Amino acid sequence: MTSDLTPYAERVLDLVERIPPGRVMSYGDVAEFLGEGGPRQVGRVLSVWGGGVPWWRVIRTDGTPPPGHETECLRRWREEGTPVKGARAQMRTARWDGTPL
């Protein structure tokens, strides 16, 4: 496996960097916004290259954090003021559509 960033990965990471604090996008939202790939491809990019971007702002459609990262994700959401109910982001109010705030 190569560690070279692909053009698709660059686009995913650029978008994730632009998600404002306190807001989230689902993996599918990211793919739909970019008009390419799908949720699994976005997840793969974040798992390989996402350590330097706010990965906790990209979550499952049901508002749950990435598996294995629940504690860190919830901590960061609280710090950023992300609307949360229990262990889930409130997608109705926290979802970002990619437009400037």
UniProtKB/TrEMBL annotation:
The keyword DNA damage is annotated on this UniProt entry: yes
Alphabetical keyword list: DNA damage
Region (Disordered) location: 80-101
Methylated-DNA-[protein]-cysteine S-methyltransferase DNA binding domain location: 8-67
Molecular function via GO: catalytic activity
Stretches of the chain forming a coiled coil according to its record: none
Superkingdom per UniProt: Bacteria
InterPro entries named among the record's database cross-references: ATL_DNA_repair, MethylDNA_cys_MeTrfase_DNA-bd, MethylDNA_cys_MeTrfase_DNAb, WH-like_DNA-bd_sf
Record bears the keyword DNA damage: yes
Pfam family, one: DNA_binding_1
Record-linked CDD domains: ATase (cd06445)
SUPFAM superfamilies membership: Methylated DNA-protein cysteine methyltransferase, C-terminal domain (SSF46767)
Signal peptide (UniProt feature, chain positions): none
Gene Ontology BP, a term: DNA repair
PANTHER family (alphabetical): 6-O-METHYLGUANINE DNA METHYLTRANSFERASE (PTHR42942), ALKYLTRANSFERASE-LIKE PROTEIN 1 (PTHR42942:SF1)
Annotated protein name in UniProt: Methylated-DNA-[protein]-cysteine S-methyltransferase DNA binding domain-containing protein
Source organism: Acrocarpospora pleiomorpha
Upper lineage: Bacteria, Bacillati, Actinomycetota, Actinomycetes, Streptosporangiales
